[in-house]
Amino acid sequence: MTPAETMLWTRLRRKDLHGFKFRRQHPLGPFIVDFCCPVHRLIVELDGPIHDRQTQHDAARTEQLEQFGYRVIRFRNEEVLSDVERVVFEISQVCKC
To answer: DSSP code of 48?
Structure first.
Protein backbone atom coordinates (compact mmCIF):
# COMPACT_ATOMS: atom_id res chain seq x y z
CA MET A 1 0.00 0.00 0.00
CA THR A 2 1.05 3.56 -0.60
CA PRO A 3 1.41 5.90 2.40
CA ALA A 4 -1.91 7.53 1.44
CA GLU A 5 -3.67 4.16 1.24
CA THR A 6 -2.23 3.17 4.61
CA MET A 7 -3.39 6.43 6.19
CA LEU A 8 -6.92 6.14 4.81
CA TRP A 9 -7.19 2.42 5.61
CA THR A 10 -6.31 3.18 9.24
CA ARG A 11 -9.46 5.30 9.38
CA LEU A 12 -11.74 3.07 7.31
CA ARG A 13 -10.91 -0.23 9.00
CA ARG A 14 -11.89 1.15 12.40
CA LYS A 15 -15.37 1.78 11.03
CA ASP A 16 -15.01 5.50 11.76
CA LEU A 17 -17.68 6.21 9.16
CA HIS A 18 -20.79 5.53 11.21
CA GLY A 19 -19.88 1.85 11.44
CA PHE A 20 -19.80 1.27 7.68
CA LYS A 21 -17.58 -1.64 6.76
CA PHE A 22 -14.97 -1.15 4.05
CA ARG A 23 -12.82 -3.73 2.33
CA ARG A 24 -9.31 -3.04 1.07
CA GLN A 25 -8.00 -4.28 -2.28
CA HIS A 26 -11.40 -5.76 -3.06
CA PRO A 27 -11.80 -7.79 -6.30
CA LEU A 28 -14.71 -6.67 -8.44
CA GLY A 29 -15.07 -8.23 -11.88
CA PRO A 30 -11.71 -7.89 -13.64
CA PHE A 31 -10.61 -5.11 -11.25
CA ILE A 32 -9.15 -4.79 -7.80
CA VAL A 33 -10.40 -1.58 -6.23
CA ASP A 34 -8.59 0.31 -3.49
CA PHE A 35 -11.50 0.44 -1.02
CA CYS A 36 -15.08 -0.80 -1.25
CA CYS A 37 -18.15 -0.47 0.95
CA PRO A 38 -20.45 -3.18 -0.47
CA VAL A 39 -23.48 -2.12 1.60
CA HIS A 40 -23.43 1.33 0.01
CA ARG A 41 -22.07 0.11 -3.33
CA LEU A 42 -19.28 2.66 -2.99
CA ILE A 43 -15.73 2.44 -4.29
CA VAL A 44 -13.00 4.80 -3.14
CA GLU A 45 -9.97 5.05 -5.39
CA LEU A 46 -6.75 6.88 -4.55
CA ASP A 47 -4.79 8.29 -7.44
CA GLY A 48 -1.07 8.86 -7.52
CA PRO A 49 1.02 10.64 -10.16
CA ILE A 50 0.66 7.85 -12.74
CA HIS A 51 -3.05 8.61 -12.99
CA ASP A 52 -2.20 11.97 -14.59
CA ARG A 53 -1.09 9.99 -17.65
CA GLN A 54 -3.93 7.48 -17.77
CA THR A 55 -7.09 9.55 -17.53
CA GLN A 56 -8.84 7.70 -20.35
CA HIS A 57 -8.05 4.33 -18.77
CA ASP A 58 -9.35 5.54 -15.39
CA ALA A 59 -12.52 6.94 -16.98
CA ALA A 60 -13.21 3.62 -18.73
CA ARG A 61 -12.57 1.70 -15.50
CA THR A 62 -14.92 4.01 -13.58
CA GLU A 63 -17.60 3.60 -16.23
CA GLN A 64 -17.41 -0.18 -16.04
CA LEU A 65 -17.53 -0.16 -12.23
CA GLU A 66 -20.58 2.09 -12.42
CA GLN A 67 -22.19 -0.43 -14.77
CA PHE A 68 -21.75 -2.96 -11.96
CA GLY A 69 -23.93 -0.64 -9.86
CA TYR A 70 -21.19 1.07 -7.84
CA ARG A 71 -20.51 4.73 -7.27
CA VAL A 72 -16.83 5.61 -7.64
CA ILE A 73 -15.19 8.53 -5.90
CA ARG A 74 -11.55 9.43 -6.37
CA PHE A 75 -9.06 11.32 -4.28
CA ARG A 76 -5.47 12.21 -5.03
CA ASN A 77 -2.87 10.79 -2.68
CA GLU A 78 -1.87 14.33 -1.76
CA GLU A 79 -5.42 15.07 -0.59
CA VAL A 80 -5.33 12.16 1.83
CA LEU A 81 -1.86 12.97 3.10
CA SER A 82 -2.58 16.65 3.62
CA ASP A 83 -6.15 16.46 4.99
CA VAL A 84 -7.35 12.94 5.75
CA GLU A 85 -10.13 14.34 7.95
CA ARG A 86 -11.73 16.12 4.99
CA VAL A 87 -11.44 12.97 2.85
CA VAL A 88 -13.06 10.84 5.56
CA PHE A 89 -15.80 13.45 5.94
CA GLU A 90 -16.51 13.44 2.20
CA ILE A 91 -16.69 9.65 2.15
CA SER A 92 -19.04 9.68 5.13
CA GLN A 93 -21.32 12.15 3.35
CA VAL A 94 -21.58 9.81 0.38
CA CYS A 95 -22.34 6.87 2.69
CA LYS A 96 -25.18 8.79 4.35
CA CYS A 97 -26.98 9.30 1.02
So the answer is: -
- Give pTM, 2 decimals: 0.89
User: Over the stretch 21-75, which tens digit does the pLDDT of each residue have?
Assistant: 899 999 998 999 999 999 899 999 998 866 556 678 888 999 999 999 999 999 9
Q: How wide is the angle at C-alpha 47 spanned by C-alphas 66 and 49, nearest 5°?
A: 140
Bridge partner residues of 32 (DSSP):
27
> Which H or E run contains 73?
strand 71-76
Query: If phi over 0 gives left and psi between -120 and 50 gives alpha, with beta otherwise, what is residue 40?
Result: alpha
Q: What is the DSSP letter of 20?
A: -
